[in-house]
Design goal:
Length: 526
């Protein structure tokens, strides 16, 4: 099937939905999502969204915290844009119906998370993401100009390459004409031609064994853009959240929000001793890279596979009122967080790098935009400050929408694009080839390209990855396309870029810690 549309949006999280809602005022939009529309990382966000709301907070303080977390690798212009537009974008969310918790006097109840010098995180109890996801989804679903196609899987974005024209990473005139998309009803590949296309496909936590990300986070958009010769950067900066609930039988891992540490919970070692002050004067609320590395170190010293979070001193009514989901979830597995220590372990959580974009969400490929976790705007540098990502998605989807509006009417659809060629492909009858390779990839990434790296481990990871890369490409070429094989291929692509970019960075910085480049830093003892 062939479809033509003004705007194609790939992804139904905060980045895709907010962009679609803005464009739909004057354009017809198709939004595709590879699962149910609500199944996104956005939905699982707990802590909230950072914004400068009241005195004594200020733009300068939030900018400074973001730059410190980013280990001076954040782009100062992008940081300034994001933070100075934070309040406007939050107000817009509220207009779309999002309900943030308030104090009895009517002011928003702001939380504090690691690396923030002020209380500035707007939240809806401990399920902020669910609230945002639901309200944006309802608005988009009810919009007459937006068609949401669920379980449609984007395989490749379409460029001149599909017209037989050679392009490479140095080409400055690559144009995006839309995407090839797997249609769940026919099992065939549709061609969706669009004037402008937005990639908002989220992160890639499933490149690792242990992740807080939902199963949709397989790096598809980044891998597609990379194959289309787009520019991808900052991929060595993978953020591990320090406190995923330790519950080995559960995948993905359930998150214990940093806001719990903001409310006073303290990290303790296996013997019940506080340990974070050995590593950082901010203790349990140091920035995430430091806390995750400290936990990793403590686990190596003790030989145990988790540490603890102690929230027993926080009044139980505060816990139940502010963290009802965490309370209920832990109780389900026999842990009463008001009385028991919570076992926690770091898990892959957020990809700071991605498709390089400018301050208007434009990628290096014409008419192709990217926003949200799949994009690298320059905000996060070497490490993301907690709760800055929902904000980033809103700011750059807004800016991308303004830019799209200003160019879209001068863009024509490209009618010469051929349909997807699947001649000679056969059904892959051995799922084991895919499931086993995915496990291999996740083991390689977790064991050699995790929280602490070395040149030897990275080299070994690359050699192992090259084998599964070759095998999977061969399998892909001869197989009828399925979501499973595409996701595996994309995850391997993501692993490859992470390793390559980690090898190129000949220093330890932010989230990328390589023991061959030990670093002396004013704040960090490891
Ligand atoms: P997502 O919300 O992940 O949406 C991606 C969409 O793309 C999905 O609809 C998916 O189906 C679709 N998609 C992917 N590939 C394809 C394909 N090939 N074809 C079609 N569709 C595709 N950030 C904060 O700022 N504050 C927080 O409190 C916070 N808490 C978090 C808690 C958890 C447990 C997690 C996992 C993340 C948290 N984050 C938080 C990070 C934040 O939630 C994400 O970075 C953000 O929601 C990403 O939004 P997005 O729109 O870019 O992607
Ligand atoms: C959390 O609630 O700890 C997650 C916040 C984030 O990832 O920004």
């Amino acid at each position: 099937m062939r479809l033509t549309i003004d705007v194609l949006v790939i992804g139904s999280g905060i980045a895709g939905l907010s962009y679609a809602l803005k464009l739909a005022k004057e354009n017809k939009v198709i939004l595709i999502t590879k699962d149910q529309a609500e199944e996104t990382s956005t939905r699982y966000a707990q802590g909230g969204i950072a914004a400068v709301m009241y005195d004594p907070d200020s733009y300068e303080k939030h900018i400074n915290d973001t730059m410190i977390a980013g280990d001076d690798l954040s782009d100062p212009n992008i940081v300034k844009i994001t933070i100075s537009e934070s309040k406007d974008r939050v107000k817009e969310l509220i207009k779309w119906g999002v309900d943030f918790d308030k104090q009895p006097g009517g002011r928003y109840d702001l939380a504090k998370e690691g690396g923030h010098s002020e209380y500035r995180v707007l939240h809806h109890k401990d399920s902020t993401g669910m609230e945002i996801q639901e309200k944006l989804y309802i608005a988009a679903k009810n919009h007459p100009n937006i068609t949401i196609l669920e379980k449609y899987f984007a395989i490749e974005i379409i460029t001149q390459h599909h017209l037989g024209i050679e392009i490479n990473r140095r080409s400055s005139d690559i144009v995006c004409y839309g995407a090839y998309v797997l249609n769940p009803n026919s099992g065939k590949i549709d061609t969706i031609l669009s004037r402008c296309t937005m990639i908002s496909t989220g992160g890639a936590g499933h490149a690792y064994n242990n992740t807080t990300n939902p199963k949709v986070s397989t790096g598809d958009g980044i891998a597609m853009a990379y194959r289309a010769k787009g520019f991808v950067r900052g991929m060595e900066f993978v953020q591990f959240h320090p406190t995923a609930l330790y519950n080995p039988s559960e995948k993905p891992s359930f998150l214990i929000t940093e806001a719990l540490r903001g409310a006073g919970a303290i990290l303790k070692d296996y013997q019940g001793h506080e340990f974070m002050h050995k590593y950082d004067s901010r203790g349990s609320l140091a920035s995430r890279d430091i806390v995750a590395r400290a936990i990793d170190n403590e686990m190596k010293i003790s030989g145990e596979d988790h540490v603890y979070l102690d929230a027993r001193h926080i009044p139980s009514n505060t816990m139940i009122m502010h963290f009802p989901n965490i309370y209920a979830k832990c109780l389900q597995i026999g842990i009463d967080i008001c009385k028991d220590l919570i076992p926690v372990v770091p898990a892959a959580h957020y990809l700071c790098g991605g498709i390089a974009t400018n301050e208007l969400g434009e990628t290096g490929i014409k008419h192709l935009f990217a926003s949200g976790e799949c994009a690298s705007t320059g905000l996060h540098g070497a490490n993301r400050l907690a709760s800055n990502s929902l904000l980033e998605s809103l700011v750059f989807s807004h800016r991308a929408a303004l830019k799209t509006d200003s160019i879209i009417h001068n863009i024509n659809h490209e009618h010469m694009i051929p349909d997807w060629d699947d001649e000679g492909t056969v059904l892959n009858e051995e799922m084991i080839l895919i499931t086993q390779t995915k496990k291999e990839l996740q083991n390689i990434m977790s064991n050699y390209v995790g929280i602490v790296r070395s040149n030897l481990r990275l080299n070994r990871a690359l050699k192992r990855l090259e084998i599964i890369y070759k095998e999977t490409e061969e399998l892909f070429v001869r197989s009828i396309v399925t979501q499973e094989i595409c996701e595996l291929r994309n995850l391997i692509q993501i692993g490859y870029i992470i390793i390559k970019q980690a090898m190129e960075r000949k220093e330890s910085r932010g989230l990328h810690f390589n023991i061959d480049y030990p670093k002396v830093d004013r704040n960090k003892l490891i």
